[in-house]
Amino acid sequence: MTLSDFYQFSAKNIKGQEVQLSDFRGKYILVVNTASKCGLTPQLEGLEKLYEKYKENGFVILGFPCNQFANQEPGDEKSISEGCLLNYGVSFPMFSKIEVNGENTHPIYKFLKSKLKYLFGSRIRWNFEKFLIDRNGKPIKRFAPWVKPEKIDEYLLKII
């Protein structure tokens, strides 16, 4: 796989439509696995602020709901979508629920985890682990779940 392979993937959006990641070519992309019943869920508000701040500069956040951590995303796509919008005003692209670890790991996450490991391996540790991809499709930074969007903003200020 080459680093540009990120753009070869696709995923179903929250409405069930197939989206090509190549649609985001030329942008900085922050990929995050989300959950609506997690202690970290308020990060959605901060992520939305990041998106609003940088979207005109070629930045997008892609949210991937996941129910693999303590059953914290039990709802269907409709309830996930409504919860994100009503509770946190999320306007960045959200996708259908996926798995980020294990046998059924979505190919996007297989790719990201193979490119950016952390000290103890490549497994996604919890909800709201984040991957930053540069404008050329190269994963450049992995943020732990507890890293708040405000800290990511400090990083983005240096590169965008």
Characterise this structure.
The chain contains four helices and six strands, in the order E-E-E-H-E-H-H-E-E-H. The protein is of the alpha+beta class. A four-stranded mixed β-sheet has the order 4-3-5-6, covered by helices on one side. The protein has a two-stranded antiparallel ribbon with strand order 1-2. A hairpin with a 5-residue loop joins strand 1 (10-12) and strand 2. The mean pLDDT is 92.
How do you describe this structure in short?
This protein has helices spanning 43-54, 77-88, 107-115, 149-159; strands at 10-12, 18-20, 28-34, 59-65, 130-133, 139-143. The chain is α+β, with helices and mostly antiparallel strands and 160 residues long.
Task: Please write out the topology.
Blueprint: E1 10-12, E2 18-20, E3 28-34, H1 43-54, E4 59-65, H2 77-88, H3 107-115, E5 130-133, E6 139-143, H4 149-159
Parallel strand pairs: 3-4
Antiparallel strand pairs: 1-2, 3-5, 5-6
Helix pairs in contact: 1-4
Uncertain ranges: none
Measure the end-to-end span: 26 Å
Write down the overall mean pLDDT: 92
Query: What summary fits the major beta sheet?
Result: 4 strands, mixed
Q: What order do the helices and strands follow? A: EEEHEHHEEH
Spatial ordering of strands, largest sheet: 4-3-5-6
User: Beta-strand level of the residues, as a percent range?
Assistant: 15-25%
The number of distinct structural domains comes to 1
For the secondary structure, the number of strands is 6
Task: Specify the helix fraction band.
Answer: 25-40%
Task: Give me the CATH architecture, please.
Answer: 3-Layer(aba) Sandwich
Number of helices: 4
Radius of gyration, in angstroms, nearest whole number: 14 Å
Which CATH first-tier class would you pick?
Answer: Alpha Beta
Any idea of the CATH topology?
A: Glutaredoxin
Superfamily (CATH H level) name = Glutaredoxin
The helix-and-strand class reads alpha+beta
Shape: globular
